[in-house]
Amino acid sequence: MKRLPRPIKSDLKSRRFVWDEERAIRWPYYKILREFSTLKQFYPEIDPYAEVYRMRDNVYACFSESLDGAGDVWSFVIDGPGKAMVIDTGFGIGDFKGLVKKLVGDKPLIVVNTHSHYDHAYGNCQFERCYCSEAEVARMEKKNNPHIWDYLFDENGNCRFTEFDRNDLVKWREYEIVGVEDGHIFDLGDGYEVELVMLPGHSPGQSGYYDHHNHIIFTGDTGGICDAVPGEPYPENCTVEALRDALKKLEPRMDEIEAVFPGHGMLDQTGETLRYLLHAAEAILEDPERYDEMTERFSPSTGETKKIMMKYIYQGSAIRYNRHNVYKKDQIKGAEA
Ligand SMILES: [Zn+2]
């Protein structure tokens, strides 16, 4: 099935020509935000691949188009009293670091990743050091190399999914990866705390970052469950069950969370959506065959087509899963095989 959504008016230097997964729920949000909102800031002389939206006094959301056919992606900047935090670094196209400096000046930066995927972590090498969950370090290390962008081009060097200037990819450079435990507190100065909250399933160490001051949780790609890679640590985390357990742990604090900012799609979702996510995860664990939709999906990185089941989330999108990544025991068995 070929999808051709009407393009949203854009001055970005990138031009998408493949859409694998943008859903109808996201398009109108992007349309209104990107074409009509007064929150938008654009600095093409610094980074022509990113739009900035000031969502709170000290919180910026940076939008960039996906380079590999998947969902357009958000990175975030929290301008703290003493330090600024960068949550995810995009594909590594354009001068994202320069853009961050434009927003927060010369403040020291704490760079963190929700997880290691292309669209969230390939800009890491613009920075000296990046933090993530200790359960994501192994995957992050694998991607600390100059070939991470090769899959975006065909054998003739042409872009496979989105038109962009190859010379605008950042220069690759090794950087330090630091894993921290669930609940780790980052201090942005004067007691401004941001907490790593493990929300696994999409990857072994996929995590949210909870801004205690604004009561916003930045959740990354929570909800799309992806199989563990054979041989890697924490295969049990790549399951609906692990996501359910993490949300159960967070449940007593859900009332204090005012807003959810995911890595794709609608920002400023109500904290209630975490509860709806938990309900969907519990329903899947009760009976994985009671999915709401079944679809086939091609993965450009592995070249495989897989059957994906979806359980819709009230006021949200869906938990995507397959028959092998619902229960921890199945992923542990799969990792041994
Ligand atoms: Zn992801």
Automatic annotation (TrEMBL):
GO terms for molecular function: hydrolase activity. The keyword Hydrolase applies. Residues 72-264 form the Metallo-beta-lactamase domain. Pfam families: Lactamase_B. Keywords: Hydrolase. InterPro entries: Metallo-B-lactamas, NDM-1-like, RibonucZ/Hydroxyglut_hydro. PANTHER family: ACYL-COENZYME A THIOESTERASE MBLAC2, METALLO-BETA-LACTAMASE DOMAIN-CONTAINING. This is MBL fold metallo-hydrolase. The lineage of its organism: Bacteria, Bacillati, Bacillota, Clostridia, Lachnospirales.
